[in-house]
Each structure stands twice: as C-alpha cells, then as structure tokens.
Amino acid sequence: MSWDALKSQASETTEAGLSSARVDTTTASVARVYDRFLSGKDNYEVDRAVYEQVLQIAPQAPQIARDNRAWLIRVVRFLTNNAGINQFLDCGAGLPTAENTHEAAQRLNREARVIYMDNDPVVAAHGRALLEENDRTHLVMGDLTKPDEILSNPTVRKHLDFDQPLALMHCATMHHVPDSDGPRDIMKTYVDALPSGSYLALTHFHDPGEADPEGHELARFIEGVFANSSMGSGFFRSREEIESLFCGLPLVEPGLTNLNDWWPDGPRLGDVPPVDRVLLGALARKP
Ligand SMILES: C[S@@+](CC[C@H](N)C(=O)[O-])C[C@H]1O[C@@H](n2cnc3c(N)ncnc32)[C@H](O)[C@@H]1O
Fold first, then answer.
1. Which domains does the chain have, with CATH numbers?
2. Is 173 in the pocket of ligand 1 (CB under 6 A)?
3. Nearest atom in ligand 1 to 171's CA
4. Over the stretch 83-102, which tens digit does the pLDDT of each residue have?
C-alpha cells in the first residue's frame, strides 16, 4: 500500500485503539518536525517552517536529533545484548526512521517484543505498516502524560509481562511536557509500575545555564522558536530537573551525560560542541 493511502487510512483505523483523528496540516506537529530534523519525508510546510527557523540561527541543530536517535539505538542494543531485556515500551515513539527500536532489538533477539506508543495520527498510519511487519511489534495510540491509561492499555498488558523486567523508553518526550503537567509525577507513576530489574532510558533537552553562556543561549533560542511556533513545546531544563525525572533510580555508568559521551565508539577527540550540550540522556535500572 502506498504511503498516501496509509495516511488517509489513518483516520479510519479503529483496530488496537488507533486514533481516528485526522492529520492537521495547518499546525506543526512534534513528530513531523522531528522527522524533518532527521531528513525524513513525512512532514508538511508548517513543520518545515519551524525547522528552517531553528536552522537560521543554529545550523548544527539537526545534529541534536541525529545524536538522539543514535543514542536510542545504542541503548536498545545494550539492553538486548548486555542486560537481557526482551520487552520494550517505547513512549513517544515518533515516526519510523532509518533504524527503529524493534529492528535494533529483534536483530539481536528475534523474540524481543516492542510496544510503540504515540499520539500523532501520522505515526498511527505507520503503525499499520509496523503491525504488519511482525506479531511482536505493536503500536498503541495514547497520551504519555496519562501513564495510568498507557500502563493499563489492553495491548500493552497483552504483549508485555509486568512480572518480568522491561525497558521503558522516554527519548525526547518529556521535554514536550510543561511543568504545569507535573513531569516528575508522571514519570513516578511509570517508574512505580516497573518490575524490579527494569530499565528507564530517557533523553531530554538541556539548558546548561549561565556557566555555559553559548549552550545557554542556544537552548533559550531553540526553546523560544518552538514555544512561538504552532508546535508550542520543547522545554530546555536544568541537569537537576532532568535528573529528577529518573525518580531516584540508580543510573547506569556513566550517568546523565551528553549523548556522545554515553558508551561512545571511541575517545572524544575535541571539545563538546554547544549542540551536544543541550541534550542529556541516561539509562537507569530499578533495583
Ligand atoms: C521528538 S519525538 C521523539 C521520537 C523518539 N522517541 C526518538 O527519541 O527518536 C517526540 C515524540 O513524542 C510524541 N509525543 C509528544 N507528546 C506526546 C503525548 N502527550 N502523548 C504521546 N506522544 C507524545 C510526539 O508525537 C513525537 O512522536
């Protein structure tokens, strides 16, 4: 089936709780703007306008999205290969891209089960294709700020065993949740539901503060563009605020770092450029 046909069918899909919402091409969407940053094709003029605005002042900004994606895949490989994890709940999964969680995990363990969740209707359209790919990969539509609903979703419960360790992925999601929605309380509900031996992988926009004027300025600029666009969100938080989202879980070495410093392929040869300093990530393990 063609991509256009899939997109138009997204609005008709009711299976597995997929959204019946129509794709709104007049308002920028987080998933589609991110897709543009990753050089994808599933975006509209309104999304590309946000991208272009960021690019004018911060031409290196697409590197943030690429680093985030590369980190996510490194973490999935680590979890599957080294930590023996074979079930994943990937919240705010985004549009399929060059390499996705289920591909990275199932290449190493073909029995690995992946539940993607998102609230974007274009992601829902792709979900059909993902569902057709194999019976260990599923998509649920839902609001990640309502963890009780996500955790009790019948598809999540059917395919993930909450008596066994699992990996909860929250990559580049919580910086779209405003303080007024209580991001830490949201994460606490997820973390409390995780069985012992589970992992939480989380990345988040970072404002390094006055101690790093260049990084601070970049963070404030990009946050301003996002806030003033129809997309409306993308909050750069302090290291302490990001750490609090792990709800006290012990962090796997090397802790909360610039993404390129987390299990890098080799030693860093130069200084960390400003774009690397405005996104942090860590993997935590529930004892
Ligand atoms: C920046 S993308 C990150 C995609 C992927 N996790 C990654 O790291 O590559 C953020 C994703 O979160 C989704 N998202 C944002 N707010 C959400 C919400 N309240 N409920 C569900 N999904 C949400 C967006 O639709 C988008 O696909």
1. 3-265 (3.40.50.150)
2. yes
3. 8
4. 999 999 999 999 989 899 99
